[in-house]
Amino acid sequence: MDADARLTQAAADLGYSFDAELRVGGNYVPLVRDDHVVYVSGQVPRVGDTVVVTGRVGDDVSLDQAQHAARVCAMRALVLLQRALGSLDEVRQVLRVTVYVRSAAQFTQHSEVADAASELLHRVLDRAGTHTRTSVGVFQLPKNASVELDLIASVRR
Amino acid sequence: MDADARLTQAAADLGYSFDAELRVGGNYVPLVRDDHVVYVSGQVPRVGDTVVVTGRVGDDVSLDQAQHAARVCAMRALVLLQRALGSLDEVRQVLRVTVYVRSAAQFTQHSEVADAASELLHRVLDRAGTHTRTSVGVFQLPKNASVELDLIASVRR
Amino acid sequence: MDADARLTQAAADLGYSFDAELRVGGNYVPLVRDDHVVYVSGQVPRVGDTVVVTGRVGDDVSLDQAQHAARVCAMRALVLLQRALGSLDEVRQVLRVTVYVRSAAQFTQHSEVADAASELLHRVLDRAGTHTRTSVGVFQLPKNASVELDLIASVRR
To answer: Which of A105, B2, B137, C38 has the highest local Cβ count within 10 Å?
Structure first.
């Protein structure tokens, strides 16, 4: 199974379709390529018109729900890469993932939230999904989202 | 009108002069170039010695004021690029913009704040101003600033 | 004294040993190299199994303690670079440092916290330690850490 087939499987496992246009909104673009490096805009866990996980993690949102949100963010980034590159097999390496978790004052399991995104990247991209990561706890996120994720990847020349 | 003339116009429209030295403060530099990629340090909306918009957006700072702050941050980044490169026409593409908004607990219009910066980048740089973007809501910012913005750009070789 | 000797001296001055394996935890890696650019994952001030500075800066954590935390984060990033590259003399330039400070509502000295990291990078790497920087105040950090730092560097080809 190649990376594109694994992406389809991962979307099915999440129970969402990402076939609709991925709206990013605002006066910018979802993805910019500079030579062999691709930057992907910050993704919230939006499916179609709905942000599927909103609220403060550790308060009205559980760790499980936050991990689900992280997976949806990572899926969106992967779908954007797939559409821009034609196939995820063009991804050589994910270089940097930043995961922003909207946190309750005492919530400290940001790494555990981000792990869900990291695991999905590995599952779909295999070794090309290995990445560096920064996860932090922010106070708010666009659309009241619980998680936001952006990434930088290198692609085949 | 070239990008440099558009920058002068945008500064006049904002009602500020950015002719004084742009102080960044601290033991680092405003801009580093690595081959054709330029990194610009985080910019708060400072004009001369004054941070012109301070406080928490959605609480003591309105969306309009926050958008003004975002424009000033973007202006500073553009002025730094212009001085380092000689002309903004040397900018090939803005790759990544990160916008940090000091947010009230219920404020979720981070994208709308960041849009003001994105629009200014487009207005001045035209197609080279197209970029990926991440906007998040943080708890505090240096000097009590309401917005901070950093960016990465590619330049002509 | 070369950069590696200066790193050893800086570790001794901090009173910590970084000889043990630097655990990053989770499903990702501490460092990824893409051609001549190296990305280092977000580092909290962990020494061995202990995060040595935890809590909210400006509240239960002083500026001095936060600066200590920032130095430990920077040390960890340098040790990771040294191990991956064989020697810190391979670092050509630190390109971007992002410093996340877990802040009290009224704490605004994020730049002063980040200065401690910047000074350490300069002290160890000399001119190669010059960098762009973004410092922000976040609401929480992994493991209740007071500071987190990540960086991007260019290395000799």
So the answer is: B137
Q: Write out pLDDT tens, residues A42-100.
A: 999 999 889 999 999 999 999 999 999 999 999 999 999 999 999 999 999 999 999 99
Which of A105, A112, A130 is opposite residue C32, by nearest beta carbon? A130
Q: Is residue C152 less than 8 Å (CB to CB) from chain A?
A: yes
Give the ipTM of the model, two decimals please.
0.94
DSSP letters for chain C: --HHHHHHHHHHHHT----S-----SSS-SEEEETTEEEEEEE-SEETTEESSBS-BTTTB-HHHHHHHHHHHHHHHHHHHHHHHSSGGGEEEEEEEEEEEEB-TT---HHHHHHHHHHHHHHHHGGGG--EEEEEEESB-GGGBSEEEEEEEEE--
| Residue B134 touches partner C, C-beta closer than 8 Å | no
B68-110 pLDDT tens trace:
999 999 999 999 999 999 999 999 999 999 999 999 999 999 9
The pTM of this model reads 0.96
Q: Are C146 and C139 in contact (CB under 8 A)?
A: no
